Amino acid sequence: MMIVLNECFDSHTPIPNKRLLHSSLSQLSQSPSLPPSALRDNEKEKAELMEKVKTHPIDSKDQTIAELKEQLADQTQLQREVALLRADKETFVSVIGSLQKEKEQLRNDVANKTQKLEENEKSLVQARQTIEEMKAELARKEQFFVSSEIIIAFDPNHYRVNGTTVTNISGRWVGCFTKPVSKGIHRLSIKTAANTLIGVIDAAEFPKHLTSHSHASPKAGLMQNCSGYLYTASKNIVLNTIPQKEQEFSVEADLEKRTLHFFIDGMQQPHHFIDIPVPLVFALDPYTQDVPIPIAFWGELELSSVTFQGTGHNLG
Questions:
Q1: At residue 71, what are phi and psi to the nearest 5 degrees?
Q2: Is 33 part of any domain?
Q3: 309 neighbors 190 (Cβ within 8 angstroms)
Q4: Which keywords, in A-to-Z order, does the entry hold (predicted)?
Q5: CATH label of the domain that carries residue 240
Q6: How many CB atoms within 10 Å of residue 54?
Q7: How far apart are CA 277 and CA 315, in angstroms?
Q8: CA-CA distance, 296 to 162, in Å (whole number)?
Q9: Other Cβ atoms within 10 Å of 106 Cβ, number
Q10: For residue 179, what pLDDT band results from cuts at 50, 70 and 90?
Q11: For the CA atoms of 148, 153, 157, 158, what is the dihedral angle to 10 degrees?
Q12: Which stretch of DSSP H or E encloses residue 198?
């Protein structure tokens, strides 16, 4: 009996089963006598089979178990990697969610700051507008303006109406009076230098007092710059602040309310006159010889400068 294996085995073909191989070898050894050439061939085949058994000792079942173990290990490793990827994915999703929340918060913050910036810009524009209005009002108040209708009297028989503008007066026994006014709010302002009385007198009375004796009239209300006293009917009645040199000394008459207030550099004084006569003239009575008294303003105002009630005093 001769078993030919050349066609199914080579040096790289695995032996499927050791038992089958040993059975084949036993059959070869127990077969009837063969011719010498056949015996040689069988011996050769037997040697080749033995060689294959030596070089391929692993049973197919063992090989399958090893492959399954390797596959199981690979699967376990794959599961671990999948678990890690899922954890990474969850972390990534969480980070993305946090970033989106931060983005939304930043967007809201930017919107709020933009709104506040716009509100601040509007407030700044309004503040600038208010400042410009205040500057214009201040410039209007500080604008040099003196009516040409101011009477300057040198004595009871010699006085004149100045034809242009009066910027200052000087000289003892020189009275300065404005034109009569009967309505509105009017102001006369000077720069304090010489000893001077400033205020108002009844328009019907002032021709009798064209020199510097206006304070003698019971219908006059004046304030003296060197003492701060209010004067009427040749007597001082109450004390205000004493103006300093070069300060602006103003008197303001409201002919509707019939009040006469005094101001130093725009600051209202606490004491004032009430029930002043209407119509009236504004009066300046210099007491110092040849010291100029600059007239800073004379005219009608749109609004009163009075900011508080103060204490009112009657004339006479």
A1: -65, -40
A2: no
A3: no
A4: Coiled coil
A5: 2.60.120.920
A6: 8
A7: 9
A8: 16
A9: 10
A10: confident
A11: -60
A12: strand 196-202
CB-based contacts of 247: which residues, under 8 Å, 6+ apart?
A: 191, 192, 264, 265
Residue with tokens 């810009």: 121
pLDDT of residue 33: 52
Contacts of 250 (CB under 8 A, 6+ apart): 187, 188, 189, 190, 262, 263, 264, 266, 297
Residue whose token pair is 């034109």:
179
Residue showing tokens 């040096």: 11
279 cis-preceded (ω within 30 degrees of 0):
yes
Please state whether the predicted TM-score (pTM) of the whole model is above 0.85.
no
Lowest mean pLDDT among 49-53, 85-89, 94-98: 49-53
Domain count, the chain: 1
In whole angstroms, what is the distance from residue 135 CA to residue 229 CA?
A: 32
Helices then strands (H, E): number in the chain?
A: 3, 16
The answer to whether residue 195 sits within a structural domain is yes
Phi and psi (nearest 5°) for 251? -130, 135
d(CA 191, CA 120): 41
Between 200 and 32, the more confident residue is 200
The closest alpha carbon to 177, from 138, 195, 203, 157, belongs to 203
The verdict on residue 304 lying in a domain is yes
For tokens 């700051």, the residue is 113
What span, in angstroms and rounded, lies between the C-alpha atoms of 278 and 200?
10
Domain coverage including residue 229: 150-313
110: in domain: no
Can you give the C-alpha Rg of the chain in angstroms?
A: 62
Residue the block writes with tokens 């720069």: 191
